[in-house]
Design goal:
It contains four helices and five strands; from the N terminus they run βααβββαβα. With 164 residues, it is an alpha+beta fold.
């Protein structure tokens, strides 16, 4: 007996605009919940601060976001590239570096390759602008996606200070 497979609805990757900020903030909030179990009391002020931060950078072109959108125009995944200033060093005359952040896929759409498509789109965007590399901080949930695309661990270290 043959079984019929239901095809996934067509999804396109597009560049987000400031009009997408509500969904980008929502997805970032969900990302933090998934990663750290953050509470509403921590997330509410972070959402407000991120909204202001992202709006300013999107308007100036220093933050570019990409989203996966269904035919019904539902945004089901997204991620952003922040073009940040870096210190001058040998071999880095450009002094700007793309940083991938806020990657998130709605649970019902996970495992369909959307994060991979968004990261590939972000990489293509950065390469087309002459950037020699891209950085990110990977969660355990996303590490496999990034490693399959060629991202490697670096020597970065971090010291966390106690909250006062």
């Amino acid at each position: 007996m043959a079984t019929s497979r239901r095809r996934a609805p067509p999804i396109r990757i597009r560049r987000a605009t400031v009009k997408d900020l509500d969904v980008l903030v929502h997805q970032r909030r969900q990302m933090w919940r998934d990663i750290s179990g953050s509470s509403t009391e921590d997330l509410d002020p972070a959402d407000a601060a991120y909204r202001r931060w992202a709006r300013q950078r999107m308007q100036s072109g220093r933050l570019v976001a990409f989203v996966a959108e269904t035919k019904a125009r539902e945004v089901v995944a997204g991620g952003a590239v922040w073009v940040r200033e870096i210190q001058p060093r040998p071999g880095a005359a450009l002094r700007r570096q793309p940083y991938l952040l806020s990657m998130y896929t709605e649970p019902a759409f996970r495992g369909k390759g959307l994060a991979t498509k968004i990261v590939k789109t972000a990489i293509a965007w950065a390469k087309a602008r002459g950037f020699p590399s891209m950085t990110l901080h990977a969660s355990d949930l996303g590490r496999g996606v990034y490693e399959k695309l060629g991202f490697r661990m670096t020597t970065e270290m971090r010291l966390r200070f106690a909250r006062r």
